[in-house]
Design brief:
Length: about 80
């Protein structure tokens, strides 16, 4: 199962489809660090969102529970600033 499909299924199971928009895109850059996930959450909106890199389906539960529900980014997959340079 891919990241998008897993996210979709997990958001449905968590009852978050009315609170979270899941949008498929092309590469958000840098593609070598994909799959990339960008999360805009009210708790982290001032920072412009949080970028996750090298996300695989096994990371999605933690991103949902820690960040989407808890408001705290899942530190294990947050992309470092250097990746964008």
């Amino acid at each position: 199962m891919n990241v998008l499909q897993t996210f979709s299924e997990k958001l449905i199971a968590a009852g978050l489809t009315n609170q979270v928009s899941l949008v498929a895109t092309g590469c958000l850059g840098p593609c070598r660090a994909g799959a990339n996930v960008l999360v805009f959450h009210p708790a982290t909106a001032a920072e412009g969102g949080v970028w996750y890199m090298t996300v695989d389906p096994s990371d999605i539960d933690a991103i949902i529970s820690e960040h989407l529900v808890g408001g705290v980014p899942y530190a294990d997959k947050v992309a470092p600033d250097e990746i964008w340079q």
